[in-house]
């Protein structure tokens, strides 16, 4: 039996353009999908919800990589059709990552920078590689993987749904992986993984073995860090652009709070790993 939990939060953005989908009507088969609409292009929420709808509708028709390929191709066609219907060809873009588990084997595919992680007794492994400029720089040996989170071009994506392609641009897993008892998977958008490192995800996984408790523990800390980071960014900008001394003081206070939270998070992680 598959045990799972899910959450979707707006964070500090004006709109929540993420969508999630879960289909587990046929035991022991389960399909899990997450899509992150591109806010800068507009109508990202329509793009992400359309992609997830296609993934869920396809989940019971095919198996393995055949299903994954079909759901991405169907999602791409549906989004392009919606762009024409709504006269929004330059809008409606989204990432998507899909995990399909059947009979003890996991299949997955993705496009964009929404990620899939695998957790086990052996550790944490990122199964997907971002289709982004920083990931390309990692492949070229110009930056380290750890630098992706804070790279100025981290939001520049090379592949998404909603952009016409001559051939499919999503990435399928080369072969299914065996799922052992106690294994866990995490699907997440950049609004999550930018604020929490893999070692911290793993430590909290060991501390909270139930999916709902694990997700709640990560969510609580990520939201706190997001809030204080946004406060720091707003006040730092006011200090730089307007010479607002009060804003500068608030920015320093927010920065100290962030440092405290990171130290607290690290302490919790170390304690959880003992």
Provide a descriptive summary of the structure in words.
This protein has 274 residues and is an alpha+beta fold. It has 2 domains: 1-194, PPM-type phosphatase domain (Phosphatase 2c, domain 1, 4-Layer Sandwich), CATH 3.60.40.10; 197-274. Helix content is 43%, strand content 17%. The chain is built from 7 helices and 9 strands, in the order E-E-H-H-E-E-E-E-H-E-E-E-H-H-H-H. It has helices spanning 44-58, 64-85, 133-139, 190-193, 198-207, 211-242, 245-273, and strands at residues 18-23, 29-36, 96-102, 105-111, 115-120, 123-126, 171-172, 177-178, 184-188. The strands form 2 sheets. Strands 1, 2, 3, 4, 7 and 8 form a 6-stranded antiparallel β-sheet that branches. Strands 6-5-9 form a 3-stranded antiparallel β-sheet. Strand 5 and strand 6 form a beta hairpin. Helix 5 runs antiparallel to helix 6 (211-242), helix 5 packs across helix 7 (245-273) and helix 6 (211-242) runs antiparallel to helix 7. The protein is globular, with a radius of gyration of 20 Å. 33% of the residues are buried.
Quick recap of the structure?
The protein is an alpha+beta fold and 274 residues long. The chain has seven helices and nine strands, in the order ββααββββαβββαααα.
């Amino acid at each position: 039996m598959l045990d799972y939990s899910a959450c979707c939060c707006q964070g500090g953005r004006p709109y929540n353009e993420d969508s999630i989908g879960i289909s587990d009507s046929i035991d022991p088969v389960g399909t899990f999908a997450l899509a992150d609409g591109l806010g800068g292009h507009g109508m990202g929420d329509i793009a992400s919800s359309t992609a997830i709808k296609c993934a869920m509708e396809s989940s019971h028709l095919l198996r393995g990589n055949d299903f994954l390929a079909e759901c991405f191709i169907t999602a791409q066609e549906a989004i392009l059709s919606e762009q024409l219907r709504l006269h929004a060809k330059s809008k409606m873009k989204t990432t998507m990552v899909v995990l399909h588990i059947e009979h003890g084997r996991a299949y997955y595919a993705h496009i964009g920078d929404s990620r899939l992680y695998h957790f086990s007794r052996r550790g944490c492994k990122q199964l997907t590689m971002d289709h982004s400029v920083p990931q390309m720089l990692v492949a070229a040996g110009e930056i380290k993987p750890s630098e992706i989170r804070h790279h100025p071009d981290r939001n520049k994506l090379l592949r998404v749904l909603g952009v016409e392609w001559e051939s499919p641009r999503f990435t399928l897993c080369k072969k299914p992986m065996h799922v052992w008892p106690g294994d866990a998977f995490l699907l997440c958008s950049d609004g999550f993984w930018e604020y929490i490192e893999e070692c911290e995800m793993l430590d909290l996984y060991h501390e909270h073995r139930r999916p709902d408790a694990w997700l709640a523990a990560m969510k609580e800390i990520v939201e706190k860090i997001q809030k204080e980071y946004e406060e720091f960014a707003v006040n730092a900008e006011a200090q730089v652009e307007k010479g607002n001394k009060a804003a500068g003081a608030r920015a320093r206070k927010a920065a100290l709070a962030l440092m405290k939270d990171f130290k607290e998070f690290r302490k919790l992680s170390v304690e959880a790993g003992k």
